Amino acid sequence: MSYKITNMIIDDDFDSEEYVTAEFIHDQTNYSITFKKADLEIINAWVYKDGTSLPANLSDTMIESIRDDIKKRI
Predict the structure, then answer these.
(1) Is 40 left (phi over 0), alpha (psi -120 to 50) or beta?
(2) pTM
(3) CA dihedral 46, 48, 49, 52 (to 10 degrees)
């Protein structure tokens, strides 16, 4: 699985939930994926193309790999 996390944001200012968003590049395309911080359940994933964001269709393998990477960083 070839990707590079370029930015990670931990939103801990919410009253009820904290979230972790990772921005990454895969196949020269920019993506972002957001997880709940508590259990790293996926909330959403976006792909950025032609100046717009669209829902990303990421494989389970890629999601698990990114989740593991985030676990190591937080």
Answers:
(1) left
(2) 0.90
(3) 90
